[in-house]
Amino acid sequence: MNRREFLKHLRLGAIAAPVVISACKAQSPDNANSSDNGTNTPLELPLPGAGNAAAIFPSSVASGDPTPSGAMLWTRVAAEHIQIDQPLLWEIASDEGFSNVVARGAIAASFLSASSDYTIKLDTDGLLGNNQFYFYRFAYGDTSSRIGRMRTLPLADEAVDQLKMILVTCQDFTLGRFHAYREIATVEADYLLHLGDFIYESAIIGIGPDRLLNLPSGQQYAVDLNDCRFIYKTHRAEAELQEALEKHTLIHTWDDHEIANDRYWDGERPRGPDHPLDSDPVAFTQYTRDAIQAWYEYLPVRVPYDPDGDFPDLIEVERSFRFGNLAELVLTELRMHRDPHPCGEGNFGERQLVLESSCEARHEPDRTMMGSIQRNWMLDTLADSDAQWKVLGLPIPFSPIQISQLPAAVYETDHWDGYTDERRIILQALADRDVNNLIVLSGDLHAFLAAQLFSNYDGSGEPIGAEFATSAVAATPIASINPPANVFLQQLNIQANNPHINFWDGTRNGWCEVTITPTNCRVVMRAMLAQLPIANPSLPLAEFNVDADNPLLQRL
Known about the structure:
By secondary structure, the chain is an alpha+beta fold. The protein contains 10 helices and 26 strands. It has helices spanning 3-23, 53-56, 179-184, 225-236, 239-247, 281-298, 372-384, 420-432, 485-488, 491-497, and strands spanning 61-67, 70-76, 88-93, 101-107, 119-123, 133-140, 143-144, 148-151, 163-168, 191-194, 249-252, 264-265, 270-271, 319-323, 327-331, 354-355, 389-394, 410-411, 438-442, 448-454, 463-469, 501-505, 510-516, 520-528, 538-547, 554-555.
């Protein structure tokens, strides 16, 4: 076990202990009130719906990071309603009416602390049955939270007939409406997969006066912990997002905007080339530490995290999820260990439209986005998995995207096109190790994309899988920004310059529905009609299929 692996196990144990203690033990309804819960408080919860949930639990509830025997449950109690020595109660039932309670407990008042902004993450791993939906709620005083629904994972060798995930990414409060989430809340699915940019750190402009962010610091970008927490609270106050997180168990990784646009690690310190604090190493490092803390507080994630640890190993976001014998999801993070951009470190925009002739450095050997430890873990997990489908979750699109051929080849170097040698290594390793039934799911692009994956893109490679990228669920689509970029980012131009790309649409917001069975993987792209102040429905934009044991992408 190397140092990083040792720290990973050490930190996971250190963090898990308080939430397990606060959760107490699984209890039946018969013995719940006599259980030793550390609070000397009878575990009698008010009836579902009692009290003013919006006032006491202003961010509602959420579940995430499922295991075969539980998940992380999350809520936040409003600071102004905190009472000394008042514990937070919780319970889980097999039915929405809570007539069959399977576990309940109390969280001591000491855990409701300003040090975590009064957020609570309750780890119920070990309490529940595998591959089941459950309902959960919290209670504080005489008020019950809204009811959440969670789903546990199947056992690793369990036969699973179908897995349905909703794929989302990129939600910017200032530049998007959250209408999509209200519709997502009505869709029947197993899990909600979010591939990053849960928030945006900027507060420069808004699409309307109701979408402005007045940060506590008064700055246009988040600069400290208070700013970051304020942005999360603002996002989590959106009723549509609350409804979706109440309905679906979240599986989430981050990208850049949870901290700063196009962030990376320069070998010595975190960097954010477009952030106003980047020129001050001490200030930006502290801000990054603050932003990581806020992300950890406000998302129901179970990841090793040491708030006092050294960069870049203070947190490890990469992890995997096994859906019985049907699929294995390998979830990555692509910011904490990545090298600087090969070019375009100056003003915003220089990394987005880069001439091939001016950026040969993008092909340099050993330039990494993942770091060698994460890359080897990812490849080993995919290659060693005996699940039928291997699903790779990447916050950033994997396929080459040549934006233009005339007058010269143009690329986006914050994406994998800035790290081509590592992409080549990964693709070749996947082919050499016979990783079949490979599906890549990605985000960040603010466009819908369906592409054939090849072991090599020089014409000699073989198809090895398919990639599907979802557009932003609530942020500006890439092809609707100001010219000249939107001229190059239209469907006809992208597909003409990239024969491996089967479909492209950068004009709509939306999400993807990914359904995997033993025989096929089917992806439906759903697009919102427009970003309007009033709710509007989605429409199916395109539908695709990949058959088991046949990597060829089919459009239906």
